[in-house]
């Protein structure tokens, strides 16, 4: 049994006057502890698929199962991290990281300690009494990651979480997130427009075609790259070859009038 099974997903958005098919015939499996990226042009349904996997949208057709059970049947199974940190500005950092535990009714002593330990692991010692406006963008994203991991989700969904950050902060946070997820053995799915980011962080990369969105091609990232941090992956000789391969495939599916 696969950890995550996505079986024959189709999804159409209906309005009073139209029907737009966002996804067609999408099937894939993700193993426990694996990091997978969804890459592709705008409008190829990446975020729609992420929302379906998270149980936020019910697909028109198809099934998503996590450990053999349909998604959405249990709490705290799936964590979601977005481009914006969505921290509550009127709450302290401590209140923000404990919010998921409070909502789920699991605000217990050991779980509170676990959340505080995560903050320290992220290099955020002594920020608990501060407010989000007192932190940098990169620090806020780290707090958002702690808030997500504090509920101990089995699957982590990352929807372009680094795209709003400056390049240096982005690279540092990629390293931190990658190392953290590996150390906890977490399974993750990343949606990104950044080829380099997908290569640097993933075990596999799925390239989606638009109109309607479907899997165009899957790329296995070589072991010599997977064993490196995202920063060092970009400097490896094998990185350029796979980057060029994905780039050529992406160009072949981009609309001709994109410029």
TrEMBL record:
Pfam families in the cross-refs: ABC_tran
Alphabetized UniProt keyword annotations: ATP-binding, Nucleotide-binding, Transport
SMART domains: AAA
GO MF annotation terms: ATP binding
Residues in the signal sequence: none
InterPro entries per UniProt: AAA+_ATPase, ABC_transporter-like_ATP-bd, ABC_transporter-like_CS, ABC_transporter_ATP-bind, P-loop_NTPase
Span of domain ABC transporter: 4-235
Database matches in PROSITE patterns: ABC_TRANSPORTER_1, ABC_TRANSPORTER_2
Superkingdom of origin organism: Bacteria
PANTHER family named in the record: ABC TRANSPORTER ATP-BINDING PROTEIN, TAURINE IMPORT ATP-BINDING PROTEIN-RELATED
Protein's name in the database: NitT/TauT family transport system ATP-binding protein
């Amino acid at each position: 049994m696969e950890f995550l099974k996505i079986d024959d997903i189709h999804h159409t958005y209906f309005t009073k006057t139209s029907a737009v098919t966002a996804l067609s015939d999408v099937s894939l499996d993700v193993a426990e502890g694996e990091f997978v990226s969804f890459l592709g042009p705008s409008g190829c349904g990446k975020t729609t698929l992420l929302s379906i996997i998270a149980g936020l949208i019910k697909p028109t057709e198809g099934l998503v199962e996590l450990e053999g059970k349909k998604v959405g049947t249990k709490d705290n199974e799936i964590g979601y991290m977005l481009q914006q940190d969505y921290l509550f500005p009127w709450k302290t950092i401590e209140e923000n990281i404990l919010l998921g535990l409070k909502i789920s009714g699991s605000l217990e002593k050991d779980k509170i300690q676990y959340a505080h330990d995560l903050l320290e692991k992220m290099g955020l010692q002594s920020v608990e009494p501060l407010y989000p406006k007192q932190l940098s963008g990169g620090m806020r994203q780290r707090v958002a990651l702690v808030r997500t991991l504090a509920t101990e989700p089995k699957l982590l969904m990352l929807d372009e979480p680094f795209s709003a950050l400056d390049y240096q902060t982005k690279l540092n946070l990629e390293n931190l997130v990658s190392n953290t997820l590996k150390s906890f053995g977490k399974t993750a799915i990343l949606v990104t427009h950044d080829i380099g980011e997908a290569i640097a962080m993933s075990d596999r990369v799925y390239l989606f075609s638009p109109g309607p969105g479907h899997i165009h091609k899957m790329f296995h990232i070589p072991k010599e790259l997977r064993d490196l941090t995202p920063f060092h992956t970009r400097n490896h000789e094998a990185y350029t070859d796979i980057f060029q391969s994905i780039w050529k495939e992406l160009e072949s599916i981009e609309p001709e009038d994109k410029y």
